[in-house]
User: Which sequence fits this backbone?
């Protein structure tokens, strides 16, 4: 199992949609992720849907959308294929439920803006689980 946790792109809060930087991130995102993706899960917020648009196009798959309560119940993790590669696009209000389940350090109020700076890469096989951070080149 391999999961890439991607925070939504930067938002223009006057429109509720991705800002120019957020759109640029969305377009660049497929180059930061491996070529073969088996599953895409997405918070049901518009900013998350816009962020993974180019991943959907590149991989020819539609993202499954989740409500905040689904994240709280860790349902996106249950839907990730055990022998595949998954992307989960999140907003800060939902990700800590999943990180806690996987024993990955949680975001705090102090470090929440760093979520734009990296993608969390989680990998699990029969014996071990690891995680690392992939730099996105973006900052808030």
Assistant:
């Amino acid at each position: 199992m391999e999961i890439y946790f991607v925070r939504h792109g930067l938002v223009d809060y006057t429109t509720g949609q991705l800002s120019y930087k957020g759109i640029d991130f969305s377009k660049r995102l497929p180059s930061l992720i491996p070529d073969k993706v088996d599953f895409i899960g997405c918070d049901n917020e518009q900013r998350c849907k816009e962020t993974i648009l180019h991943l959907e196009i590149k991989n020819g798959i539609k993202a499954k959308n989740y409500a905040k309560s689904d994240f709280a119940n860790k349902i996106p993790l249950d839907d990730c294929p055990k022998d595949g590669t998954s992307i989960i696009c999140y907003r800060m209000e939902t990700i800590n439920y999943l990180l806690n389940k996987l024993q990955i350090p949680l975001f705090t109020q102090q470090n929440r803006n760093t979520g734009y700076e990296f993608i969390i890469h989680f990998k699990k096989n029969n014996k071990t689980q690891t995680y690392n951070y992939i730099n996105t080149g973006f900052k808030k």
